[in-house]
Design brief:
single chain; 211 residues; alpha+beta; Structural Genomics Hypothetical 15.5 Kd Protein In mrcA-pckA Intergenic Region, Chain A; 8-stranded mixed beta sheet; disordered N terminus
């Protein structure tokens, strides 16, 4: 596990999953009406994969993108988070809350200011970045900006599979232990295969406090 302090990502290398099942439309012509982006999110280090796909306006800030990721996955949004990106395998550039600025080894950008459109620019998709949630349990999500699409309105859920892990359950290692029956789930009745796309709500919720 990694904990708050100097971010551990500055000392490790990360390889994006090239077999993530990215949705692409070869040969699609770009138009000025493509004001949204299709995004796939999945948890790194867990098999079978826990994943979600949704679309969102390119004009939202990264803090709004974080809220959408939290809602799509099913997290309670009660722990710190950050986005990580960079060249090669060392992801030292951070998009996140101002409080993380002095802990960043690379470039820092304020998530309340930077928009998805500004980040993507005119670059060719797909583009991959990381999303860290809960710096104790250390849930690492791979975020894939898959393609630009037409549409309007708020975030829209498109697809997904398997239940979000339980909050504060110990991270990927303990999740996989419980999945394989080596330890019990934190909350009895948890079904790792359950996912109801109709139950996902992007309505703004007040973050729960961490215990």
């Amino acid at each position: 596990m990694f904990f708050m302090g100097k971010p551990a990502f500055g000392r490790v290398q990360f390889k994006f999953d090239s077999q993530a099942g990215i949705c692409q439309t070869p040969g699609m012509a770009k138009t000025s009406d493509q004001n949204r982006v299709s995004i796939k999110v999945f948890l790194y280090g867990i098999q079978p994969q826990i994943w979600r796909r949704f679309s969102i306006s390119k004009e939202v800030t990264f803090i709004a993108l974080s809220d959408a990721i939290q809602a799509a996955m099913g997290w309670d949004n009660k722990h710190p988070h950050e986005f990580r990106h960079g060249k090669g395998k060392r992801l030292v550039d951070v998009i996140g809350p101002i409080g993380l600025q002095d802990q960043t080894l690379g470039e820092f950008q304020d998530e309340a200011v930077l928009t998805v459109s500004e980040f993507l620019g005119k670059r060719k998709l797909p583009i991959r970045i990381l999303y860290r949630y809960d710096f104790a349990d250390e849930w690492i999500h791979e975020i894939v900006f898959e393609k630009r699409i037409e549409g309007e309105g708020g975030p829209e859920m498109l697809d997904g599979a398997r239940a979000c892990p339980q909050e504060d359950c110990g991270g990927t290692f303990q999740y996989m232990q419980a999945l394989h029956g080596e330890i019990a789930w934190m909350h009895p009745g948890y079904d790792p295969e359950a996912f109801d796309i109709k139950a996902v709500s992007f309505e703004k919720k007040k973050p729960k406090r961490a215990r």
